[in-house]
Amino acid sequence: MSENHYAEFSECSMKPQDVLEYVSGPMPVPAEGEVLIRMKAAPINPADINFVQGVYGVKPVLPHSRAGLEGCGMVQESRAEGFRKDDEVILLRGVGSWSEYVAVPAVNVMKLPVKVDPVQAAMLKVNPLTALRMLEGFVSLTPGDWVVQNASNSGVGRCIIQLAREMGVKTVNFVRRPDELRDELTALGADLVVGEDDEDVVKNTLARLDGKRPVLASNAVGGESALRLMDMLAPGGSMVTYGAMSRKSIKVPNGFLIFKGIKLEGLWVTQWLKNAPVPEIEAAYDKLARLMADGRLKQAVDTVYPLSDVRRAVEKAQEEFRSGKVVLSMERA
Amino acid sequence: MSENHYAEFSECSMKPQDVLEYVSGPMPVPAEGEVLIRMKAAPINPADINFVQGVYGVKPVLPHSRAGLEGCGMVQESRAEGFRKDDEVILLRGVGSWSEYVAVPAVNVMKLPVKVDPVQAAMLKVNPLTALRMLEGFVSLTPGDWVVQNASNSGVGRCIIQLAREMGVKTVNFVRRPDELRDELTALGADLVVGEDDEDVVKNTLARLDGKRPVLASNAVGGESALRLMDMLAPGGSMVTYGAMSRKSIKVPNGFLIFKGIKLEGLWVTQWLKNAPVPEIEAAYDKLARLMADGRLKQAVDTVYPLSDVRRAVEKAQEEFRSGKVVLSMERA
């Protein structure tokens, strides 16, 4: 095989399906210190959409920017210490995962400690790590504590439910379709699944927490939804924002900060991955990969498309109601 | 002397001057563990106004609630260990400082380590401590770092300028009347004094910071003003809110939290005083009292009124442009 295929774009657009192209080019050649990876799968995350739109925290270098911020594959050729052919790996940094082959510095790659299903492993980097950092990085949680989140049916949301269950931490989960999703999320470990549209939802939900209040709020929505989370928090609690699906600013009543002592912080694992000590990163992924291999951490998948269908896949990934992630496979024609 | 005089109110009102009354009652008698204090002076802070309005974090017990959240005096009679007649003290907790005499548990009182002018000492509890906590409690500041604040001409704002100067930390100070105040605040140690109304103020001000950005923002205003502070902050910086003069919520662009990694927290020294270890509280006030005694920490005073003029004083304290605090004196007829 002397040809590589990948998804690229040469201008940003709010409609990524209009600018993404499935193209071919020469096989990448790994330099000293790099590994050549045959990619197996890569998901389509909101961050990927935003990246092609040009509104993400990492900006594409145009023209001919390659897309895809995470994925998994197998080492085809290694010119770096510690890696050899057939090692199963995930990409930790950089873009271009929507490719058949990539050559990347070994420091941007992590070997999986256990055998993980490729479609699940492809989604290991961002969502499970975001969930883990959310639960471990801000507030010291002990069993019996409550965490409240919105966007609970999202990739991160579902990981938070499952990781909290592992920690003995209880979750209040806001979703838009509680009746449809209650059983599924409860099966993952959700303690409460509640709709966001009820006017008295804060009061009514708090009444179900045995006199406790959440000490941590995970916010991926912003706007009114974030306000509800802050309203529910215990004094001194933290709201951590990792997404902004409503595209609306967070409105913080001053008294929440001054008198209730609430903290607001942000979480962006791309940044964390840049700065955290390597052993800490490895420990986090080791824990997550093992939970995934055991089936205790699973992300829902809506559809798997071959890489050549990248436009259709990206369109699907932007549909509002899906049953899970859209994933690109490089192993299907 | 067998009579006591004090300010009380029996209903809350947005116009404290309409409900506050200067009344007389029997002399308080200290119980075991208490001290009887002859008050010397007490300031009128926004918190006092809000307390009488019923919108403060501490709610009055009506009817016959006494007003005044801080002040200084001299021990008249001690029934507590560690205190004796003529000790100069400030009130650390509780309300009712707008009185000629108060009997309070010794734990609510702190002895001054040095001789401080009573009008200045009366303002030691809240504003200087707020400024000290602001500079010491959230971000680790080193000489040459920048701090940005709004409401810089307020009691706390001026303390921040002076304490930052002591630490070798530089300050950007937003005020509404930069041309009138520049000389005065610069004399206190302000590095930059800027108006808030200029459209390009953020860009223009950043250009004057030698390529640095503030790592801490002190916010007492909210609304647009808070947004400007966040905009100026360095990545990973903190905005700490201790007041809400504009009465407008803080609008936080999600990206500030996620991509810029900014933190939002609140500061309420009343709460801190409740929870902090006693040695830490004493160390803070010791430092502040000594700076005050040395004239290195000074709060501006607009007018001193006798306690009997409490209504007029409270009205004056609500006027927008004053040259400093309004203080009640119990030593003037």
Automatic annotation (TrEMBL), chains A, B:
**Entries under Gene3D superfamilies matching the protein:** Medium-chain alcohol dehydrogenases, catalytic domain, NAD(P)-binding Rossmann-like Domain
Q: Does the keyword Chaperone apply?
A: no
An example Pfam family from this entry, by short name, is ADH_zinc_N
Name the InterPro entries on file.
Answer: ADH-like_C (IPR013149), ADH-like_N (IPR013154), ER (IPR020843), GroES-like_sf (IPR011032), Mito_Enoyl-ACP_Reductase (IPR051034), NAD(P)-bd_dom_sf (IPR036291)
SMART domains per record: PKS_ER
Instruction: Report domain Enoyl reductase (ER) positions.
Output: 15-328
Q: Which UniProt keywords apply?
A: Fatty acid biosynthesis, Fatty acid metabolism, Lipid biosynthesis, Lipid metabolism, NADP, Oxidoreductase, Transit peptide
Domain of life assignment: Bacteria
Which catalysed reactions does the entry list for this protein? Answer: a 2,3-saturated acyl-[ACP] + NADP(+) = a (2E)-enoyl-[ACP] + NADPH + H(+)
Its BP terms in the Gene Ontology are: fatty acid biosynthetic process
Q: What is its EC number?
A: 1.3.1.104
Family from the record: Belongs to the zinc-containing alcohol dehydrogenase family. Quinone oxidoreductase subfamily.
Q: What is this protein called?
A: enoyl-[acyl-carrier-protein] reductase
Query: What is the species listed in this Swiss-Prot or TrEMBL entry?
Result: Akkermansia muciniphila
